[in-house]
Amino acid sequence: CVIKNQPDSITHLISVVDRALTNARTHVLLADSAEASRAELLALLKKQQFNVTEAGSGAEALRLLDTGNGIDIVLSDIALCDMTAYGLLKEIRQRHGEDALSVVAVGAGDDRTHAAKFLQSGGTEFIQKPMLIEEFNSRLFQVANIQKRIQALHSIAARDYLTDIYNRRYFFQYGSRMVDQCLRRGGTTSIAIIDIDLFKRLNDTYGHEVGDLVLKAVAKRLRALIGEEHLLARLGGEEFGILFNELGICAAHDFCETVRRDIAAAKVVADDEELSITISIGLATIEGPETFDNYLHAADQFLYMAKYDGRNRIVS
Ligand code: GH3
Ligand code: MG
Ligand code: MG
Ligand code: MG
């Protein structure tokens, strides 16, 4: 009996720790206009380790969501002072999809149709009051856990397996949105394609594994140079893309020149050898109503000229 109980209690302990870890990484926006019931829910959430931000009205909840401080779950009372949880949900769903944000309502009273209506409107979960604390905790953990797993899948789908920088899919998806926003603001920006010079020769001389090490090293260096401000991705093979965040062609050219020099000066150590790598860059301006594909195509044409002119250079 003792032997049988021991693994169970360890399993239980692990699941309690797991739950606390997941909850601690989850940010809940708690919207409730009634002070007493908000305080009660706040205490429950805090006890379960959630990060909580409070809102006293639907309008305040929407304002806090807009300031975008990484909220994962909205937990709303069904009747707020200025709107219902349905109204809030409708506003939220216009801006945030179901993958980005879970919305949970807490309802009281005899109207048992609330739950079905709320879930059919794109709500994630509905909790009926009066409720068992353990049920409330379990339902919220379930929502947090699924939300975190969806976020993890999105992040895996956006990254290149070899270099761990963004992949081509993400570059196109997020990049075309960035360009739309920039052009709508009346701005201009620039896009670059970087291609490693004579990479096939390097593969043929040192082997594919060394080639992979070089790709990883170049990606790491590019990431360090480019930081979070601009969008960097591996477009495929030994090609990388940079979509600049509102940077005119002159400033982008200076930036690319710094990158080109840095890579040319760096030594990649592989197979006890110090390898010198150079890159060529095609750089195009983004202005006017072209498709994202066309901007990239323009950069590709300039890259072709850079290769033709002798490599290790920028053409814009
Ligand atoms: P250029 O200066 O004109 O760009 O010459 P290049 O040799 O770099 O260009 P080419 O397009 O002829 O060759 C690219 C090579 O990149 C061919 C391919 O085997 C290699 N390659 C593509 N993806 C990978 C990869 O994931 N790992 C390794 N090791 N090599 C790759
Ligand atoms: Mg090539
Ligand atoms: Mg190449
Ligand atoms: Mg290439």
Explain this structure.
This protein is of the alpha/beta class and 316 residues long. Helices cover 53% and strands 20% of the residues. The strands form three sheets. A five-stranded parallel β-sheet has the order 2-1-3-4-5, with helices on both faces. A five-stranded mixed β-sheet has the order 7-8-6-11-12, with helices on both faces. It is elongated and about 75 Å long. The N and C termini lie far apart (76 Å). Bound molecules: 3'-deoxy-guanosine-5'-triphosphate and magnesium ion (3 copies). Residues 195-197, 199, 238 line the site of one magnesium ion.
Layout of secondary structure:
Layout: H1 2-24, E1 27-31, H2 35-47, E2 51-55, H3 58-66, E3 73-77, H4 85-95, E4 102-107, H5 113-120, E5 125-128, H6 133-158, H7 168-184, E6 189-196, H8 199-206, H9 208-226, E7 231-236, E8 239-243, H10 249-265, E9 267-270, E10 273-276, E11 279-286, H11 292-308, E12 314-315
Parallel strand pairs: 1-2, 1-3, 3-4, 4-5, 11-12
Antiparallel strand pairs: 6-8, 6-11, 7-8, 9-10
GO biological process, one term: cell adhesion involved in single-species biofilm formation
EC number: 2.7.7.65
Modified residues (4-aspartylphosphate): 77
